[in-house]
Sequence to fold (499 residues):
Amino acid sequence: MNQLSHFIDGQNVTGNSGRFGDIFNPATGEVQAHVPFASESEVDDAVQSAGQAQVSWAGTNPQRRARVMMEFVRLLQRDMDKLAATLSREHGKTLADARGDVQRGLEVAEFCIGTPHLLKGEFTASAGSGIDMYSMRQPIGVAAGITPFNFPAMIPIWKLAPAISCGNAFILKPSERDPSVPLMLAELMQEAGLPDGILQVINGDKQTVDAILGHPDIGAVGFVGSTPVAQAVYSQATAAGKRAQCFGGAKNHMVIMPDADLDQAVDALVGAGYGAAGERCMAVSVAVPVGENTANDLISRLIPRVENLKVGPYTAGDDVDYGPLITKDAKERVLRLIESGVHEGAELVVDQRSFSLQGYENGFFVGPHLFDHVTDDMQIYREEIFGPVLSTVRADTYEDAVNLVTDNEYGNGVAIFTRDGDTARDFTDRINVGMVGINVPIPVPLAYHTFGGWKKSIFGDLNQHGIDAFRFYTRTKTVTSRWPSGIKEGAVLNFPTLD
Ligand code: NAD
Fold:
């Protein structure tokens, strides 16, 4: 059995807590590795040495830190196939999708090559007589990231690259379901020239997360995962005086207007609804056709497309559209939710509840499902399913569609498909969702914009990547300076003004 490790002070370190988790091959259902779960004292050791290493890293000029990131990008490109294969073996997503996972992370590391520019700060000459004023961005010290299973390359890089570029040391606690790629990322950072201790990968579960959140020397926590955990981590971290940004779950709608190009809309729904088995926080899980004719036409075009999706292991290459879910529990939960939809009266127009894949009967595969006539009080509408299940909620009017999206408790992504510029403009203006697509189903912003939802999809103020990441991982210090030649008056007891 393959025994995974932690990565501490530039070395792979076997854990000593005596606690381990199983890593499955989701396609076969077999356990393929064990991962150690770090104890509180192991977390403490890693934070201590990270704190010591951080001092000289923060003193390394930003251009040199950026060069490490530049080399990291090159190494990610060099090892793309190896990373993607490892990622697919643990996560189950197709190889093409795994490459996209690495690529979207790489692009944030690429953005971080601009660190010297991004950290320049602000300067005002002669803010008062003989007085200059400047603001600088200084690192937090030791920051931590807690990441989900569904993007085991992209999201760790979204956290570690900006944090480290800003001069912090970083403690990464990746998902215990697929930690091999995060461990490989740490080795690549080391090869790129990162000093020992600046990136520590600590594996574990809730107990390990609690040790991170309770550690007094960790100044900032970035979390991505499900909403209940995001909310709890945010409360715990901020109550302990840490800066926190916690990104949660989603229920993303796609509104299809009567004037939309329906073929384009169907392509978009198939890709965004079922890609990666629906295990994406930006997956479209609710189709909202406006008007009876649009709904009937959409459903009749969708059914054959969904029925013909090819489900299988990543090893089948291009013959597969999507792979298994991450665990047996995840599969059983999705199947339970499908049953609840049927029970509550939704119409299951593509029903693959009996789906089984020959030769992979113990894998965590779920066939594609399509619901019509879903209503907003049903469990399948209210909960994030995180599986290959698309729900159709029919809206009578555009206003009904807007109200449905507005009233939903999540606000990560949303899309509208229309040919009408006025409608698209009105929609983007009024909708209370963080990322909006116009004829684009998965509007994930590029690295130099920021990523984040609204409502219960986020706890905290700043988004991920783009300029917000540089704000999150630094503190502002503002200096007002005057040299002796400018000091003319005596003691001033009034509150100073510079006019
Ligand atoms: P999860 O909440 O189960 O786990 C996320 C991380 O938290 C993992 O590292 C896990 O070990 C840790 N964790 C789990 N339970 C915990 C607890 N009780 N206390 C403390 N830590 C705990 O999420 P997941 O299943 O790994 O990922 C899927 C979820 O992540 C979905 O809800 C998805 O929408 C969301 N997600 C959101 C975004 C975003 O940017 N908004 C991006 C990707 C995924």
Q: What stands out?
A: Residues 141 and 168 are 5 Å apart (CA to CA). The domain at 252-438 is CATH 3.40.309.10 (Aldehyde Dehydrogenase; Chain A, domain 2). The chain has two domains: 2-248+457-479, 252-438.
